[in-house]
Amino acid sequence: MAHHALASQESYNPNHLLDILLGKMQLKNDAALSRMLEVAPPVISKIRHHRLPVGASLLIRMHEVTGMSIRDLRDLMGDRRTKYRLSDAQGRPKPSEEKAGEPVASGNYAH
Length: 111
Hints:
By secondary structure, the chain is mostly helical. It contains five helices and no strands.
């Protein structure tokens, strides 16, 4: 059974978040929640069983549907991280974009 890294935090409990959303939106079950969030029902099940983290796009959708802040949604599931690490590769230019140490042109030219 594969667990994601966030699941190792003791306070992480996405079920609490999902249960709060069910109550706030007056929904009967996870199938209704998945319809409201426009995700497949197995996504909710995988989140409940700690096989899938609540991703950024799903958090944004929860925010859009409920009007709750992203911070509040993250707090409800016990995500207390204040910073996120980006991959070392993110933000670096691709090797094909570099020319022997020359800066890459920005593409902002006046005509």
